[in-house]
Design brief:
disordered N terminus; about 25% strand; 4-stranded mixed sheet
Length: about 150
């Protein structure tokens, strides 16, 4: 069984060096440059950003397990996505990723890693643009799945 580590909201650092607010967003209403999921539809929403804790393991390898995971955390669904075998479950306060995300080629190319269940990103010079690229690809996949 995977060790569950509660997600920490607001652990990420904004591009200006300040911590994020309770919603995971920076004071300018934007997400930090390195997040697994970011949205600005109807407000700012940032999930799985560099410095945030995530649960890693089999408890979130599909949408049903995501819902069960979030229910067990007394959390509500903020979104989920699956890219090349990597499944990510985002609650309002919790994030869970499947074990496959730790070795996912797309995420490693984008310089995401998960050390001690903490989201980490590559160098600050390149991680922002690359993170936005992976988020855009994942959002496109999620939208295509939802609209299918």
């Amino acid at each position: 069984a995977a060790l569950a580590v509660p997600a920490v909201v607001g652990a990420a650092i904004c591009d200006d060096g300040n911590s994020t607010g309770s919603d995971g967003c920076c004071s300018n209403g934007q997400c930090p440059s390195c997040c697994l999921q970011s949205s600005h539809f109807g407000g700012c929403s940032c999930k799985g950003c560099a410095g945030d804790a995530v649960d890693v393991g089999g408890a979130c390898s599909n949408s049903d397990e995501c819902r069960t995971y979030l229910t067990g955390k007394n959390d509500s669904m903020a979104g989920y996505q699956s890219v090349n075998g990597c499944f990510m479950c985002f609650g309002e306060q919790s994030t869970c990723i499947s074990e496959a995300c730790k070795t996912n080629h797309l995420l490693s190319v984008q310089q995401f890693s998960f050390t001690d269940n903490i989201v980490q990103c590559g160098s600050s010079e390149t991680s922002g643009a690359r993170a936005r690229s992976v988020v855009a690809a994942m959002i496109a996949t999620l939208l295509a799945t939802m609209l299918a």
